[in-house]
Amino acid sequence: MKVEIDQKSGFCFGVVNAVSKAEEALQSNDKLYCLGDIVHNGMEVSRLETLGLITIDHKKYFTLKDCKVLLRTHGEPPSTYEYARENNIELIDATCPVVLKLQQRVRRAHEDMQQQQGQVIIFGKKGHAEVKGLLGQTGNRAILVENEADLEQIDPQKPLVMFSQTTKPLDDFHRLSAKIQERAQAPTDIKDTICRQVANRVPRLKIFAAGHDVMIFVGGRKSSNAKLLFAVCQQANPNSYFISGKEELDTNWFTGHNSVGISGATSTPQWLMEEIAEIIRKI
Ligand code: SF4
């Protein structure tokens, strides 16, 4: 069986940076909390938890004081930083620089739009951590749109600036922004803020998935990016399977086939894909 790992898959630079910040901080004996899963990959979270990382939710965070907390790549709203300042919490900020820059742009756009009686629109997934961080820059006054039905919330008579969550599909962003522009009767400023670490993987992955008999996609079930990239695999290759760990492999998938491709999301660790490749080679 020929097994090949997609060389362009696995951690993006934002996740590499967050994981190495966590590993570095865990070398001291201090307790280290992480606000939310450090990556949307249960196996990597467990690995870091065995090194001492303690994953907490926001409810727990707002009870802490005098400790160290790591902020993951998705970013946080200003209220998280304010609470840390007031409660002697040392933050290890691993917010991805791409997300940090987007937060600043959203904040500035909100200030501008307030002066012009305009609107800030965020295209993103309701409840997603990055989206909460972006909405927080506008005091939760930006309009979140996920689909066409949500466009009813936008006032076509008022100017608007639109941004996107970094991990949304480019096609969806273009379709929705075109609808917004069609309906608008005031100036619109559409800003494509999708991270190319994700978007650029799509065309390459299509070719990679089509070039193998069977495609195994490794990702966390909570990862938006994993869902998006797996859908790309399915379109290019009907023999595509999504797994989160080696125990989900089914030997029947490989019967009568000679080549297997393995790919993963921006939150999938390389060691996990290698472990899975090794098992498939032995089938
Ligand atoms: S996908 Fe892009 S924005 Fe998100 S963490 Fe990776 S590099 Fe940063």
TrEMBL record:
Keywords: 4Fe-4S, Iron, Iron-sulfur, Isoprene biosynthesis, Metal-binding, Oxidoreductase
Residue positions binding [4Fe-4S] cluster: 12, 96, 195
Pfam families: LYTB
Sequence positions that bind dimethylallyl diphosphate: 40, 74, 128, 223-225, 267
Binding positions for (2E)-4-hydroxy-3-methylbut-2-enyl diphosphate per the UniProt entry: 40, 74, 128, 166, 223-225, 267
Domain of life: Bacteria
Catalytic reaction list: isopentenyl diphosphate + 2 oxidized [2Fe-2S]-[ferredoxin] + H2O = (2E)-4-hydroxy-3-methylbut-2-enyl diphosphate + 2 reduced [2Fe-2S]-[ferredoxin] + 2 H(+); dimethylallyl diphosphate + 2 oxidized [2Fe-2S]-[ferredoxin] + H2O = (2E)-4-hydroxy-3-methylbut-2-enyl diphosphate + 2 reduced [2Fe-2S]-[ferredoxin] + 2 H(+)
Single annotated GO MF: 4 iron, 4 sulfur cluster binding
Job description of the protein: Catalyzes the conversion of 1-hydroxy-2-methyl-2-(E)-butenyl 4-diphosphate (HMBPP) into a mixture of isopentenyl diphosphate (IPP) and dimethylallyl diphosphate (DMAPP). Acts in the terminal step of the DOXP/MEP pathway for isoprenoid precursor biosynthesis.
Protein name as annotated: 4-hydroxy-3-methylbut-2-enyl diphosphate reductase
Organism: Gaoshiqia sediminis
